[in-house]
Amino acid sequence: MIEKTVVKVLVPAGALGIPYDRDALARGLTHKPDLIAIDGGSTDSGPFYLGTGTSKYSRSSTKSDWGELMAARAKIGVPLLIGTAGTCGTNSTVDWLVDITKEIASERHETLTIAVLKSDQSAANINGSAALGRMHPLEGAPAITSEIIEDCTNIVALAGAEQIQQALATGADIIIAGRTTDTAIIAALPLVRGCHKGAAWHGAKIAECGALATTNPNSGVILMEFDQTGFTIIPMSDNASATPQTVSAHMLYENSDPFILYEPGGYLDVTDAHYHSVAERSVRVEGSRWHDTTPYYVKVEGARISGYQTVSFVLVRDSDYVSHIDQWVSGLETVFASKMYDNGNNDVALEMRIIGKNATLGALETDMASTPELGIMAIFTAPTQAKANEAAKILNPHLLHMPLTEKEPMPTFAFPFSPAETDRGPLYEFCLHHVCELDTPMAWFSLDVIEVKADG
Amino acid sequence: MAKLGTLVHKIRSKNAGPFWLTIDIFCHDFDNFSEISEQLSTAKVATLFGTNTSHIKRFNIAELQVIKFSMPRPHIQGVRLDRDMHGASFACLLEGFEL
Asked: Is B64 in CB contact (< 8 Å) with chain A?
């Protein structure tokens, strides 16, 4: 008889920096997990973080949250793994978290080994792949050229389970990974220990947002148990329950297809998965299937600067102007275009969003409810910051004083700030939604092990 | 005529990566799901989002009593003309839709 393998992965929260229930984490440790795994980011906060290679969370709050997980790891002596470190998972944010980790270890006189998996790619890698016909657009991908690739300030490839397994195999106490898929950090260990492949990936997808697949998303901590036939999700908070409904519904979340999930090396199909309650608050899932595919693809992400922005705000409270806001805004656009033409400037784009009318949905808005005041957010986008700022200053007197008609006294609108315009810096855009073929999973990734010695 | 948001349990929208938007309509029960999925045509949703039915993927998931629509984002996340970085406000369009 083959002994049943059970791999337990403790997921403290949907991402490092998101609050979780401290008691639930303590309870999770008593279950003796084989691994503590947490996600460090995603593209969800926008292209700025990948573009700049920076974290959206502060260093001090990251140090505090990461320090708690390092203490949890030290307590039970199992590896702690983070994927997509520092929001975007570039080499710079990996180094940033390694630095924080060393600082915490030094303060605690802790001896550690840290495995560092990096995902950055050169433009040459990407263009080379494209030239060989080894790069393919995913549905909805923007058109690209080799110049666009070269313009990228950062490009990363998303590591899958294979690269994470290499990092785990170093035996390091802590694994800090650059960009990975959200699921790979949870699926890697059960896969390498021979658990059911469909269950490993499906369970990883369910667990990637922590307790979001339970009745109490804010409790954060869940324990995932994987074996040869399926997985079980066990919420660690007293106030959270997993139900077949909460677990199966999680496949909808941030997924364009609720049944199929593509990952490096294959895809998951949960069409025939069945979910049933076990114990009081846990759910058992079996029947999900994994399909290996060749060649081996990894997804790539890149961001580049598409312009520089300056933003001006003005508030309109006069009821006559509020009721004729489209006419007033259109008048401002005409004045702006004419002034820019006179100055020989034709490369500044102005967009006026009317807050209180349709700033969120634009032309798609269907609700025409009226409000006593409106805010105008004038966004200037130009090839340089100086040009964007100059354009905002050109519109400034009109934004403050332009009358609806020639026959009325000069109005003055409300500027909430002085100066009225604020430079926003560079505007980044995502410019890759592609997969690239690799000869071996590690071809585009690097792995190093760092020893941190307690200084006595 | 009633607004869709008042007829169902919950409507949410969210990015599915920077290039796609996905919208989930959670119905109260199976009857509610059957009724809404019959009345809410993909063509109506396409018009509401200023797109074409061929760009919309639709999933009627009876087991969950959920109707799901996925489509390319009206603008790619974070580009100059994008207005909502996380895409959660697009649900309001469907909530206010008179069925």
From this structure: yes
Residue numbers in B near A138 (CB within 8 A): 19
Q: What is the reported pLDDT for A57?
A: 96
Q: How far B92 CA lies from chain A's nearest CA (Å)?
A: 9
Question: Phi and psi dihedrals of A309, rounded to 5?
Answer: -125, 150
Mean pLDDT of chain A: 96
Report the pLDDT averaged over residues A123-127.
Answer: 97
Domain of A407 in residue numbering reads as 318-413
Shared domain for A195 and A341, answered yes or no, is: no
Q: Which residues of B touch A259 (CB under 8 A)?
A: 59
| A122 or A344, which is more confident | A122
Position A206 scores a pLDDT of 97
B15 CB neighbours in chain A (<8 A) are 43-44, 254
Residues in chain A: 456
Q: Are B17 and A254 inside 8 Å of each other by CB?
A: yes
- Its pTM stands at 0.95
Classify residue A423: in a domain, yes or no.
no
Maximum CA extent, chain B? 43
